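Sequence in, structure out. Go.
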Amino acid sequence: MAVLPGLSEEERRRNLHFVIVGGGPTGVEFAAELHDYFQEDLVKLYPMVKDLVKITVIQSGDHILNMFDDRISTFAEKKFTRDGIDVQTGCRVVSVSDKEITMKVKSKGEVCSIPHGLVVWSTGIGTRPVVRDFMQQIGQADKRVLVTDEWLRVKGCEDVYAIGDCASISQRRYPLSQVDSQMKSLPATAQVAAQQGTYLSSCFNRREHCKEHPEGPRRFKSSGQHEFLPFRYKHFGQFAPLGGEQAAAELPGDWVSMGHSTQWLWYSVYASKQVSWRTRVLVVSDWTRRFIFGRDSSRI
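Output:
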């Protein structure tokens, strides 16, 4: 669109202004990948608009990646500055139109508008209608997500379980490790949902086993009706790809890693978490083709 004839430079700049709202891991990764896509691939096809591309990240907090260690936030902001990615912190978006995005700067109390060609919204998730309707039926309409007990059962519903982003554990009755106490409000990540799914399936399987073999020894202490230990989330760390073959990682034990070596660690973890060897081979082959031939722009 930016290279169509008859457009003014102002219109070209607006078409090539990409705004990412939300400075969390998803928004930061998208901004980094978009920057690499332009610098490594698209400039070869459209060299005439190389200097017109602009990427802006809008974050309501004081720093991007504010759920990470301060060292990672600082490293990411400095890298984005070197890459020419504009990071606007302390700004809250109040409206979005087809050509402008309006935001309020907290420090100044001013409202300003900037033109855009594309807005990517990455500030979080909302409740699905089916979950929201269910919450109203069970008296949880005033909650942000479904409230469950330590066994992932929805409060007020004995045989309904909820895991993942749509639910939150209300309280714990057992002493927790330091990691568990820090993760009382569990992050909306696949890591949490995967552990909850594994835990819940294990509970269901053992429950059937107890029914079939009631005379067998009980592995867990019972307080009347509960036969299993409550769910405990084990945090294995988190990664944030920053583009340019660099990444940042925050791992258990207060270990922070940043740079090119961390990117290769991220590749290893990402490939190992695939569901089958078929998908691992496909993912690694895609990476290899990109390294050798670049990205396939015809599929975008």
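Check: Residues 24 and 67 are 8 Å apart (CA to CA). Residues 129-212 form one domain.
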